[in-house]
Design goal:
Length: about 220
C-alpha cells in the first residue's frame, strides 16, 4: 500500500513538472552539442606557427621625424638678407627736398586729414608739372588712380622691389609693360593725392620689397 502511494506520487510529480523537466533536458543537450562543436576542430597554435612581419627600425616614424626636423630647421634658419636698396636706386625721382618722411612703423600727423596715420613713403618738394623720373631700371607694372595718393605709376624691379610714384597728373607718358631706364620720365607732378591736398606740390615716392614698405631714405643716404 505504501509503495503504491509512492508510485502515484511520482507519476503526479512527473505529470505536473514534466514540461519543465523536458525543457531542462533540451537545454543541457544543446549546451553539450555546442561545446563539442566549438572544441572539436580547434588546434592549438604553437609559437613556431605564429608568423610576424618585422618592420625595419629605420622606417618607423621616419616621415613625421623628417617633417619635425624640417620645421625646426626652418624656424631656426637665418633669414635671407635682402638685396641692399642702394644697389637698386640710381637716380633721385625728384630733385626737391624731403617735406614728409617715411612713417610706416609709427603714426605721423597729416595736415590734410588732421589725424595721425602711417606714411609708407616720402614726399619730395617739386614744382607743378615737374617731370618725375624713374629711380631705377624697370618695367611699368601698374598705372592707376589710388584712393589716397592719386594717380600712381608702379615700376617693377629685380629682387622683389617695386617703386611707386604718386600724386602725378592725369597725363601719364608710359604704358603698362613698357621697359624704362633710370632717369626716364614716368609722369609729372600733379595734385591728385586727396590725403595730401593741404601740402605744396610734391611727389609721393615709395619703395616696397616683397610688398613690405622700405624707407626710401636708405637709397639716398
Amino acid at each position: 500500500m505504501q509503495n503504491n502511494n509512492k508510485s502515484k506520487g511520482f507519476r503526479s510529480f512527473v505529470k505536473e513538472k514534466g514540461y519543465y523537466i523536458v525543457l531542462l533536458l533540451c537545454a543541457a543537450a544543446v549546451g553539450t552539442s555546442g561545446y563539442f562543436l566549438l572544441t572539436r576542430d580547434k588546434t592549438p597554435v604553437t609559437p613556431e606557427a605564429t608568423v610576424q612581419t618585422e618592420v625595419p627600425a629605420s622606417s618607423i616614424g621616419n616621415a613625421p621625424t623628417q617633417k619635425a626636423a624640417n620645421a625646426v630647421a626652418t624656424q631656426g634658419a637665418e633669414p635671407t638678407e635682402p638685396t641692399s636698396p642702394k644697389r637698386l636706386v640710381t637716380v633721385r625721382p625728384s630733385g626737391g627736398e624731403t617735406v614728409t618722411s617715411f612713417a610706416a612703423d609709427h603714426l605721423a600727423y597729416n595736415e590734410t586729414t588732421r589725424d595721425w596715420r602711417t606714411h609708407e613713403g616720402v614726399d619730395f618738394r617739386a614744382e607743378a608739372d615737374q617731370s618725375v623720373t624713374a629711380a631705377a631700371d624697370g618695367t611699368v607694372y601698374a598705372i592707376y588712380e589710388d584712393q589716397s595718393y592719386g594717380m600712381t605709376v608702379v615700376l617693377q624691379h629685380t629682387d622683389g622691389y617695386t617703386t611707386h610714384y604718386a600724386n602725378l597728373s592725369e597725363d601719364v607718358p608710359v604704358t603698362v609693360g613698357q621697359s624704362v631706364r633710370a632717369g626716364e620720365t614716368v609722369g609729372t607732378v600733379g595734385d591728385t593725392a586727396c590725403v595730401e591736398t593741404a601740402m605744396e606740390p610734391h611727389l609721393h615716392f615709395a619703395v616696397y620689397k616683397n610688398n613690405q614698405a622700405v624707407d626710401p631714405a636708405e637709397f639716398f643716404n
